[in-house]
């Protein structure tokens, strides 16, 4: 018993059509309302799974068929015969009820309409008649001739009518090579076979039966005369055998030949173009072809398209079978059978497969004898395999289907190739040929394959559809599809598809993505497979010995790709094994190197541009250029005004998109044409690729190369602007990125002027590809708009100026109306760059002013003029010889100050307090340079008094430094910048105090006022000396603090000596001097590289004690003062030890001139000033002698009796004094220092020797 199971997840057949309104079913079929599109049919013990989903239907809902009365004569035509009928669809206008002859490109028409299913989801696309013919191969002796094409995992099957093809060949001369091959290897006595009159008779009554079935109430017309019947038969025969094959593209068909071809079947060079869809706007691909220009050969003419799943095989099939209502089910198929002829197995399989594909559950069979209706019989679909005389196994049919699919997928591996599946009439051998390869091997010069263009267009459409999904896992497949598409096409005939395919290939590389995306992109391309072939994913070492693709007849098999030796093999389960997972034969290596990717993109862009240019009929007025001749990138010197004018023109392109260009362009290209749209996208893509190359070169510090690439990027953009009526926001945004990258490169070139020769060599290098792209650009534009901005100049000032103007242009773009909502992120970057370049220009002019000042002084050599002001701290003793400030210097100051102020405004706009603080710090440095230029002069050409102008500028510098610290807020905001500003502020106060002290303006101010100002400035400088924080500047701070205390002590010492009258003020000065001397000594003792400063401070302190003693009258008090002075003198041991060590290191270095490590390990081996040491020794010896002498005198003249200890002390003083007097004055310095150390150590008790230093 047969069982019919219905699926519940699909709609009714009657509701499938989307083009017509729903019609009520016949009451008799109401019980079958639950019929669904998905079915599972079980027959006996063998289950065959079948599921059909109607993807498209042009037919109305099935209407009840007319039950013809018995004895109805089908030879008489009904009144509505051959009239158009919505119920019968296209079957109504032909002599066939269900066409048994497929059109040559029917599968392509379906593939174009259901492009989403092609490549991955569907295994086979074909006419239902072709599917049936394949599955009947083991049962039929008829010939089979089909063309097979592969797209991804999908196979397209079309009937290849050899008879019609060879008839065409005899008329046009095309396909002669295939005809000769066929006659040589297959059928040596090929003749065209005509079908019998009985064949046409059966088709005629079938057509009349179908018209009767939809119009049973019409009265039959009289039977036509014999003459009319003959004409009808001849017409049928002519329609059947008439040439409907598309002409090959190089053949020259005569007018007579063309007249024999129906108008709707004539195919020209663009017969496939109507089906090429444009990619969505996001993909930036122009509309390629007019969708309305559908050619007959590629039109989807089927009444319905069905997605049929037969077991695990997914097929997209086209069917024209009329479907009626009636019976227990809402859908039945009508069949007409001669009662005298039994149903054979081929007819049974035919009926069964038709009903499965169309999801029709029941068959209505009308029997006739000589055209006279006899009876009707209802047969369920699942009962068809068990009909008498036509019994067949559904499981075997399933095995046949799986074996044929596996055989084809295993051997039809190359996309773009046309394969021919052929079985001769009466033969058991099935052969597969690669017609593309045979065509290439043919001796004829022009061997054409009519499938070439449809296949290429389909490959393009599938790739376009995959691109829309933006799934990078498919990028390798897309690349394979497009490369195969390009291989198949002739650039002269199909430049549009080729240009578009090359553009899509360039779009596969996302140049602006992150590193993770790039890695994913590269991986997907590596997995994309070889360019044109696929193979099934089978184990290489597992071979099925029973599966043979070769024949024992080598003569017949030498050209065949594969052979099935016997059709009986197809009935064996899993005879040909194949999984449906496709793997690439070889992986496509994609480098992760960004430059290599960009070069690949540019190669595709160039090919696309060449294809577009080849299609433009009107030649340009430009002279023909030789691509092998480099276009010079020559720098022409020009002034700043010319640059400003050119940069100002950059924004002219930013106008809103207008109505569009109306006149032909420079190359003759018409606005709005596909060439115009394609060039816009290719120019933009090339510009982006060059931009990425420039960015990569900048990161590699190859600034000459980077400037060349950014020049090419801007030239591509210039060409884009030349053919565009206006720029879209995204294009403007990219343009601003190009401009500020150009600014970056020019800035780097200005800062690295020493490497200009290497940069110039990089800049002038050009690849052949770059030259050819430039020639393509010059067809549309002179590409001169950005020359000034991208030239490699020799003047750093010019380069800084160009960089500044590029940033300004980018800023103006980003703040324009078009980009006010899109460019906020980039605007912050540009403002930061603007602030930076203005700081650079301010520093440049500041350095120029300082260099001019230095040259007039005749001080430093020219090569150090730029570094001196930035890196070196101003000396506390600045002897600047100046009378007046020249106009050139003042102009440089104004320029520098102006740029610094503009830079601060830029950083304020983005709330960048750190960089704003740095610019304030630079302004402070500029004020110090101004102060140095305003020093007063004396008539002796020596440094005069500290001038009011100097004080003014130093105070301004202090103000800017304090603003910088206020801007930072705290040290935690940015430690390095805070420390730098803090140091500069301390330095400024120290310099101000030093100059005020050394060159006191006594002509304008009182001594006391100057002393107060000096003390105030020194204490402020001391306040900013950070002695606690460990840093690289800590020793400098310690040295400065020690120097400040020393200077203050010296000043108070001087005041104490010169003060007369006010005793309280003198005591105050004395105590302050003592305080600062003690602090200075303590700080100098912590420094290992300032022995001279320590010695000088100690000697001054001893002199201060001696002066104090001179004013004392009591011997006891004097003795106490002298003893204290001697204690201070003993502290000079620390300074002499450091000096002695320095001298020893110098001697060792002179002895071991080749021992470099000694000199390196000595931190101040070259820092000891022996001349200064000699001067200090000249002060030390008399002072030491005087102290010893006075101590001996006071001790011996004292009235008080001395103790034994005191007597020993006096004796020691005498010994030391004696040795000091007898010392050799001309002895080497190191010996004299050694003697001093020995004498000082004699004066120190053994227990106190080590405590002398720290005790102070």
From TrEMBL:
Biased composition (Acidic residues): 533-546
Region (Disordered): 1-38, 514-553
InterPro entries noted in UniProt: EDRF1_N, EDRF1_TPR
Coiled coil feature spans: none
GO biological processes: positive regulation of DNA-templated transcription
Domain EDRF1 N-terminal: 47-557
Domain EDRF1 TPR repeats region: 830-1244
Protein name in the entry: Erythroid differentiation regulatory factor 1
Originating organism: Pygocentrus nattereri (Red-bellied piranha)
